[in-house]
Amino acid sequence: SRFPLILPYKSLFLHFFCKIKSLTFLTNHKHIISLLSSLVYRSLIDMADVMRPEKLDMSNDTSSLGSPELLHVLAVDDSIVDRKFIERLLRVSSCKVTVVDSATRALQYLGLDGNHSSVGFEDLKINLIMTDYSMPGMTGYELMKKIKESSAFREIPVVIMSSENILPRIDRCLEEGAEDFLLKPVKLADVKRLRDSLLKADEMAFKNIMHKRELQANDIYSQLKRAKI
């Protein structure tokens, strides 16, 4: 969009004004410099005004907000029956799903096994990871720990699933960073609750970004209005 492009030029605009003002002391054609400065100043004022969020009506633009069909979930389970079941629940909830059969496969997919990811970086947008707890080789808890140690993926919510209702295990997972701990069989209501929570978080993040941009645009506009040519 056009709006973010103006923000990096804030210091450049002010620097340009100072340069023009300094030229008035080095030339006898002060009236020419003054006219040029006024024209440029007026243009920048108009530009800053047009770029303000209320003029672009960006506050109501939700095109970049996440939507259910865009949420990408990585599901990890060594049981083919459970994999098919959770995949079905996620697709019914309008989520994009990638399923793998082990924690090792999940690490390979994320590129956390020491090799490159199995997909391109731009395609690797994961909104949620759901993993079984009891798996051969590496448990879901150990997988979560690996993910949380990664600077690239530590912010991705990890939900652990298990058919065993063992309270110390549940408490340990939640204390170590799990977003939730679901008992199998996972219910459709659980998946929809997770989806809605993610969408709400995305909406709040979007509003915070828009508020920050509005403050920056208003700051540019105010400084240009106060500038003396």
Structure, explained:
This protein has 229 residues and is an alpha/beta fold. The protein has two domains: 3-62 and 222-226; 68-204, Rossmann fold. Helix content is 53%, strand content 10%. It has helices at 3-6, 10-23, 30-50, 53-56, 80-92, 103-110, 140-148, 167-175, 188-226; strands spanning 72-76, 96-100, 128-132, 158-162, 180-183. The chain has a five-stranded parallel sheet, sandwiched between helices. The longest helix has 39 residues, at 188-226. Pfam families: Response_reg. This is Response regulatory domain-containing protein. It is found in: Nucleus.
Task: Provide a compact summary of the structure.
By secondary structure, this protein is an alpha/beta fold. It contains 9 helices and 5 strands; from the N terminus they run ααααβαβαβαβαβα. The chain has helices at residues 3-6, 10-23, 30-50, 53-56, 80-92, 103-110, 140-148, 167-175, 188-226; strands at 72-76, 96-100, 128-132, 158-162, 180-183.
How many DSSP E strands? 5
Output the CATH topology of the largest domain: Rossmann fold
Query: CATH homologous superfamily of the largest domain?
Result: Response regulator
Termini separation: 30 Å
Global Rg: 26 Å
* Order of helix and strand elements from N to C terminus: HHHHEHEHEHEHEH
**Uncertain regions spanning at least 5 consecutive residues:** 1-12, 55-69
Mean of the pLDDT scores?
Answer: 76
How would you characterize the largest beta sheet?
5 strands, parallel
Alpha-beta content class:
alpha/beta
Per the principal axes of the C-alpha atoms, what is the gross shape? elongated
Number of helices: 9
Main sheet: which strands, in order across?
2-1-3-4-5
